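Section 5.1 Outputs to date
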Amino acid sequence: MNEIDRLWEFLQRLTPLSRSCLLSELERLELCGIDMPGSADIQTRLRAEFRKDGLHQARATNPSRYFFAPLELLLMDGAPEHPNAGRISRNTLTPIWEWICRDLLPTMARDYTKAINDQVAANNPKEVLKIAAAFQTKVIKVLENTLASADGTELARSKLTQYTASRTAFDDVKKMLHVLRAGDALPKFNEKLPEKIAKFDDGQVARITAQLDAFRKSQTEALPFALTLVARRLKTSWELVRLATKTAASKSATDVAAQPYACVVPMVLDRLDDKRLALRIALRHNRVLVARDLLAEIYDLEYALKVRIDGIEQSEWGIRLQQLMDAIAALVSAEVSRFPANVGHILGSRRLRSHDSLSGKLTYLAWKGRDVVQDGAAAFRKLIGQT
């Protein structure tokens, strides 16, 4: 018996929930760039146990799936270590559930699990949903009481670290609380959105903004999640920025930052960071074509932010953008350097940066020219109104 087999024999003595938690943690560490010898074989065996059809859908126990159902549209695969406002990492659900079952509400969690399993066996879906909703209410109350004090918060954070080393897991707990507390407000908002937004033009931006304005009057804490639901409809993630730039007095970073939906800019930067992580994994596994497509999307996103927001380079957003692009450039440089100088690499192709071409630069100037005209007209109308 080799070392992997002996380790697997030991893992079989753990509970299924603990093994599922281990899988989530191993995947998180891989995404963070931490190389662990033998981890790939263990992950393969654990995925065969807990994953269905090779998809990134954790086959957690039915009770946890029903409990986390309100989060489904807000989940993201992977386990990034950046904030990701409005989204929750799917990989943190297993450790959070284990924390709930073992530390937060152990007795109620056991009762809930038995009740759910009994009703699932009896094929009573309505009762299942009712039981899940009741337990969600109990968790909300306990979390509110726990997080109301600094000591309670620190204890909860400490307990959660026993199940995951992720720096964002505790933030995901707080996000979960906001989503559960919003009740049916998010599903109702989601139902009113178009199925797909093929073109996020001025008219569509105005309609979505009106819906968001109505939503945030009563659900301020849940606003980032409503914005995530909007982002799911868009063709490209950077278009979310238009919610902030459309109503700004000008396209300057200062004026955009003053808008109610300025939070969409860091949300878009979070998505850029997601692509950076995906690029690193693609390069590690020699998936060059996947890396090429990711890199093209990254350059498009960078270009869109610089076109839409004047002076972004001097803002906090611009500083983060530059840091991300420097990290991405280092990944690309390391990959390209593996080949002789006289051998072209697909990731070094100028075609990926189509915006650096003559037509791309002319498009950039056209956008900026249009912005100047619009800003001038807006300033003139304001001046006339004052006189």
